[in-house]
Amino acid sequence: MRNFTTVLKIAPAFLLASAMIHAQTSDTATKEKKIEEVVLIGYGKQKKTDLTGSITAVSEKDFNKGAIVSADQLITGKAPGVRITNSGGSPDAAPNIRIRGGSSFSANNNPLIVIDGVPLDTNNPAGVANPLNLINPNDIESFSILKDASATAIYGNRGSNGVIIIKTKRGGGKLRVSLNTNVSVGTVTRYVDVMNADQFKSFINQNYPDYNYLLGVGGNSSNPTQAGTIYDTDWQKAIYRNSVSSDNNLSISGSLFNKVPTRLSLGYNRTEGVVKTSDYERFSAGLNITPTFFDNHLKIDFSLKGLFSKLNAIDDGGAIGGAVNMNPTLPVYLSQTSLSGGAYNRFGGYYQNTVLTGNQYLIQGQSNPLAILLQRESPQRITKFLGNAEINYKFHFLPDLRAIVNLGLEASRSNLKTVYGENAIATYRNPQNSVAPNDYVFSPGVDYAEHQNIVNQTMDAYLVYEKKYSGFLSHFLIQGGYSYQNFKNDGYKDNYRYDDATGLRVPNPGTALNPNNRYYNVLNLQSFIGRANIDFYDKYLFTLNFRADASSLFQKGERWGYFPGVGFAWKVNKDFFTGSSNVNDLKLRLGWGRTGNADIVGVAGFYPSSPYFSIGGSNSQYFPGVGTYSALAFNPGLTWETTDTWNGGIDFSFFKQDRLSGSIDVYTRKTTNLLAKVPLPSGQGLTNEFTENVGSLENKGVELNLTVVPVKNENVNWSVSGNFGYNDSKILDLGDVSYFPDNSSTLPIGTGVKIANNAVSYQPYSAWVLEQVYDSNGRPLDNVYVDKNNDGIINESDRYYKAIRPRWTYGFSTSLTYKNWDLNAAFRGQIGGLIYNTRKLAQGFKSYTVPQNSQSLNNILVSTADSPFTLSDNLYFSDYFLEDASFLRLDNVTVGYLFKNVFKSTNVRVYASVNNVYTWTNYSGQDPENFNGIDNNFYPRPRTYTIGFNFNF
Length: 953
Description:
This protein has nine helices and 53 strands.
């Protein structure tokens, strides 16, 4: 993972020498191109050559290959300006999707996802980290990514962060049966470099000899320099495994009764995580029927998708963090001794460090990380339903006029619980009035449960008049209508505790009174939409969009927001290159638009613009049985966050067969009335922060998308494509303050230490740190920092800002087919950005091995043996722990062979694939790709080896 600078020099040269894309045989090239020519836009579709906005289309042939679990993995690295960063390698890893950077602080920054005309609820179902796991990737035909506001304005308040429109596959034509199946094996590529047993024993003996008795098992504090029985345990390998996963999909498509296009699909995915017990299962089914009536004047597009998933959620911190911290001289399994001297399996055979105090054994130090995984189950069962019916009627008396009604329903049910097994270390406790040898009890059973129902209902109704002409006015479209959405989120939680009187687990008495345990939220959104497309001479294209939104989230006087957009495009090739065979397309685009945002993160249980009260728990009562009430912070003047965007672009395609094609975009966008959770002055009798419209934020950027086809003939088809995106964001104003801490930057050590601020004149989420001083050999000096203001004191005044988010992101891929062989490779990466190496801090100073008030030892990094650091308040903020997060990742390599006409008309494709092949980086930790820039208890991204078969009948 080194020599990254050299790689950065090679990668652009490779891209410009050839540049991307995907294998396709010559007899399907024309068909696939036609699919690309029509692009889905908001409430409609349009030819790609007629687009006036910045829209990136990714079709099935361009999707990422290999082991794909969720829909976002299909397009990671495929679109300029679109940064998709998963939170790690777990089967349900949550993707952070950013289109052209973030536009908000406390509002949602993820784009709007629309599947077959149904805008999804941005509040994930309980137990779902990744909502795109809840659709079968094998059912997806294409993505349209709307990036500039001239394209997204028609989605109004939900379009500020871009829009991703997903179209699923449809039936039609002759009967076709497709069976796709694959098996994958995943492995951990890199472990945290902590000490092994010999290294740790030597380190303790040299630095803390009076703690030798804590090495191994059986040591005695009366003879502190003598170690017990030493074991050699690699705790990371104890919790990790080689995972085995499979993905299976069957689809049947054709025309029912030779008239009705129909497609039926079934899918089963089982994904094992590389951390033991982190298993994921998904059963999916889909049905699409598109009948037509009255000589094709009436078309009904009916789509229905059902899904059931089950995930066993693990305790990442306890297991992954524990494996890195755990003393390597201790065993995984060991029968322990009771007070009476007999051996028994107190913790089910797992070793756990305990200390005898009086008549009680007290747990000391880190819990056994493998026991944390195997003695606890946390099944999360999700049932999901997504359906819509689009009724499209072309009037008999005026065929150019259509009436369209789209009815959509998104519904999910979540059932979650956490259950501890017999002898679980996590439930070990000493009973009241403990007397030897009855020195302990366990409380197995349900510890937590949650039940939730989410229902999202959508209704769109609009008229479209479209007419094509010859001459001056070549195309005219006008569209207008009404949209309504209703969101309901209803659920409750149960917490349990051990009852000394009965010896059973019972619900906590405060559960029913705690408002966080019972929630019901309804949100309504109604809108009026309009669009006009006017083309002159098929060369000068104008688009006007408008949307008016009203949200029940705000007070009546602030509910309505108005979001216009306008776009213009000029087909230059039709004015200056009409006779040229080398200029297929040359189009200039210019657009402006305004979008909004009201999707405030963390307020799903109440309305932050209205006065509400929270019921206190049973432990906060004035009178027995009477709970207290606390006022929740509210802001009656809360209103829309708005974003204005300017975009200029060029689309081009040159030479025969579009050998060189692509686009360049330049944009600037400014967000005002930012929704932010700001600190509340003390003495208010409320919470310590509340939501307010404050300040403004600016994003500027450049995007390049390029495709080159060096060879394209009957036997060989080679294409290369790539994309680059540059985004620079800056906070312009924060009202009455110059900065406020970002809550998502809290370090997992210390007491509420936040490493990043949102500060005026800097990138949002910038690290606020001290500049470390080094000696002449480049070695950091302990507790020595640059005194920026020369006052002789190191404090907050000496900190400075460093941008954590990368400004440059890129991806490139290549595809080669030779006769029946195909080869695909995909790369992606980022230039710049920083990552805070929490492990280098937490386990980077020697005294960490001997924590105070604990009869236990902690493991440390191998490099800590030479560390100069001692823990201090300023150490958390040293920029020494901020490392360059640049990387280039070879995401996938796939090789396949197509056997044609194996059984009459049956084609079989066999392929082998490797995901997460290699990463070039200078980062010293496990993985440089981390959205929040804080590396701690990271679930490693596995390297996955896949063998698969595609049968097409």
